[in-house]
Amino acid sequence: LCEIFNLALSEIKGTTTFNHVVSNPAYSGMKERKYAKKDEVIVKIDVKTDRMDNVIPKDLPIDLIKIDVEGAEDLVIIGAINLIKTHRPNFIIESDNEKILKNLNFWMESFAGYKIRVVGTSGFTNITKMESVVKKSLNEGKQIIDSTCCSKIAL
Q1: With a threshold of 0.70, does the pTM exceed it?
Q2: What single DSSP character describes residue 29?
Q3: Tens digits of pLDDT across the chain (155 residues)
Q4: Cβ neighbours of 50 (radius 10 Å)
């Protein structure tokens, strides 16, 4: 079962601007950032936003949340605080921004009692470990949230 929602996860329900970097799609996201090239082609798109707490049923146990949202990781976490407190899921969070990682650590520790541990610092250092965690969770029939495309996956 895979359910896809036509929205971006954030800390509020509403709308925001999504920056689609046409010349380098991997840099696309809700927050503008420094790009590798000065002449990146960016198209701004209005998108609906909502909190994960509003989207995921409260009685659905979530075991793993993967977040890779190019600079909006803290917004996703803030919008999922109740789910996190209730279900205590594991996380895989991709970010190369030290400031965002500090914010995440603050939110996760202050409001949910988590401590962030960095498992890799460059690209796909621990992709094999991440894949094994995801496969193990799916094989056990656990619920996974992939905020990259705002989908809910379960076997």
Answers
A1: yes
A2: B
A3: 678 889 999 999 999 999 999 998 888 888 888 777 888 999 999 999 999 999 999 999 888 888 888 888 889 988 998 999 899 888 888 877 778 778 888 878 887 787 776 665 544 444 445 555 556 666 666 655 555 444 333 33
A4: 18
Cα gap 141→26, rounded to integer Å: 30
Cα–Cα distance measured from residue 15 to residue 109, given in angstroms and rounded to the nearest whole number: 28
Contacts of 141 by beta carbon, 8 Å cutoff, 6+ apart? 154, 155
Separation CA 32–CA 36 (nearest Å): 13
Cβ-Cβ contacts under 8 Å for 148 (sequence gap 6 or more): 66, 67, 68, 69
Amino acid identity at 100: I
Measure CA of the first residue to CA of the last residue in the chain; give whole Å.
6
- Region for residue 123 given its phi and psi (left: phi exceeds 0; alpha: psi -120 to 50; beta: otherwise): left
The DSSP bridge partners found for residue 152 are 3, 145
